[in-house]
């Protein structure tokens, strides 16, 4: 008798608990806690329009969950983070060309995910004009359609709750999915390298070789790798030979303008010491090879940047052995350990 009363009580209590849980979840819904974006003082203005997609705690948390979610791919195994790993500034460590679902090899080297809110176009040729447009539907990457992804997320109670907290109408739609990913990515700011601390007079001082490298870099590289993001966001041909297997036409793919042939976006050099291999197809494995390319490895494929053609018609940038070494020492000051180890971006 006592036992069955106990049981009834327990069942009753559990019932209340369950009801209150569900009610709680529903009540909790959309109560946005806004997150303010702190622009580093040595950075240009944000390009990403936060008014159209305000940062909220739940939006960023959802974006992070999605970034690490294998279910965004057709085989359940390829999350964004598969090709964008934190330790290498969210590039695909050790891969010249990124491979995705079923081991398909893509045709480009994965780019870092950092400071993207300051960029006005995305991917190596700038084909993607807005951060809210992601490569999920590319066969070589995630092999999945957006509508299938949405279906999988809708079937998941955890994601239903997260979307209801992140967006006012609570709906699981592709635009909300992409907006949440953008919210997370916009927060991924790398601005605490030694270089930044020198720029902002925060007590850091370059060694002699780093200071020499910085001087040479300013003289020989910043016409393209300009400003605190180290890119003027233009598209240029820096004298790489055409990769015969890929024959990637670069910026030309967009509008088929002949002058755009073999031009690629000038990449930011932040965290460059950890984002090897280099160039759009990952053909150069280390920074020494990059400097050798600039000094003596260039080929004219018809659209080479005029600034890389010397007065006597030969190609390249004059660099002594010490200039190469010191530029590399300077490039290493762009490594931002705080960013590479920031728990806010790490997989749970
Ligand atoms: C299979 C590997 C792979 C996966 C998975 C992948 N990416 Fe990428 N990502 C790449 C490659 C390669 C590029 C360069 C593409 C190009 O230039 O055409 C890229 C480029 C990008 C860019 C542009 C960066 C810039 O500086 O312009 C963003 C943003 C991005 N990825 C976000 C994501 C997100 C978000 C996901 C998950 C939804 C994802 N990626 C999944 C390989 C991958
Ligand atoms: C004329 C413009 C220009 C100049 C000058 C220039 N670069 Fe570049 N740089 C580029 C472009 C464009 C790319 C990407 C090329 C590609 O992948 O097709 C690039 C790529 C790189 C990369 C590879 C980054 C990555 O993520 O793969 C490094 C490193 C680099 N440059 C360093 C330098 C250094 C150091 C100098 C000075 C010695 C320099 N660059 C001068 C335009 C330039």
Describe the protein:
There is one protein chain. The chain has 348 residues and is an all-alpha fold. The protein folds into two domains: 32-190, Cytochrome c-like domain (Cytochrome Bc1 Complex, Chain D, domain 2, Orthogonal Bundle), CATH 1.10.760.10; 194-338, Orthogonal Bundle (Cytochrome Bc1 Complex, Chain D, domain 2). 35% of the residues lie in helices and 1% in strands. The protein has twelve helices and two strands, in the order H-H-H-H-H-H-H-H-E-H-E-H-H-H. It has helices spanning 2-28, 57-67, 80-83, 146-154, 157-166, 174-186, 194-199, 208-220, 252-255, 287-296, 321-332, 337-340; strands at residues 235-236, 264-265. Strands 1-2 form a two-stranded antiparallel sheet. Helix 8 crosses helix 11. The longest helix has 27 residues, at 2-28. It is globular, with a radius of gyration of 24 Å. The protein binds heme C (HEC) (2 copies). One heme C binds next to helix 10.
């Amino acid at each position: 008798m006592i036992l069955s009363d106990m049981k009834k009580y327990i069942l009753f209590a559990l019932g209340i608990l369950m009801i209150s849980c569900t009610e709680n979840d529903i009540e909790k819904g959309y109560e946005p806690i806004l997150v303010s974006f702190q622009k580093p003082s040595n950075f240009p203005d944000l390009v990403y329009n936060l008014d159209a997609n305000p940062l909220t705690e739940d939006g960023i948390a959802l974006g992070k969950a999605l970034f690490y979610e294998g279910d965004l791919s057709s085989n359940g195994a390829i999350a964004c983070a598969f090709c964008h790993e934190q330790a290498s500034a969210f590039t695909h460590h050790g891969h010249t060309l990124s491979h995705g679902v079923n081991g398909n090899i893509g045709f480009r080297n994965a780019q870092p995910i950092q400071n993207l809110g300051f960029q006005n176009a995305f991917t190596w040729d700038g084909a993607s004009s807005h951060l809210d447009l992601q490569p999920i539907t590319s066969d070589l990457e995630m092999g999945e359609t957006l509508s299938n992804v949405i279906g999988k997320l809708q079937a998941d109670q955890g994601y239903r709750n997260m979307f209801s907290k992140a967006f006012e109408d609570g709906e699981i739609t592709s635009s909300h999915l992409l907006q949440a990913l953008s919210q997370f990515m916009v927060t991924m700011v790398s601005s605490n390298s030694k270089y930044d601390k020198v720029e902002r007079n925060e007590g850091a001082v370059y060694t002699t070789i780093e200071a020499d490298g910085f001087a040479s870099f300013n003289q020989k590289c910043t016409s393209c790798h300009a400003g605190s993001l180290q890119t003027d966001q233009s598209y240029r041909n820096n004298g790489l030979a055409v990769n015969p297997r890929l024959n990637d036409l670069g910026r030309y793919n967009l509008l088929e303008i002949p002058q755009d042939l073999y031009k690629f976006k000038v990449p930011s050099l932040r965290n460059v010491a950890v984002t090897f291999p280099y160039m759009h197809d990952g053909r150069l494995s280390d920074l020494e090879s990059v400097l050798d390319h600039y000094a003596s490895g260039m080929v004219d494929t018809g659209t080479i940047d005029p600034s890389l053609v010397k007065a006597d018609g030969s190609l390249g940038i004059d660099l002594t052995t010490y200039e190469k070494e010191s530029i590399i020492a300077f490039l290493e000051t762009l490594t931002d350990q705080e960013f590479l180890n920031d728990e806010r971006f790490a997989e749970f």
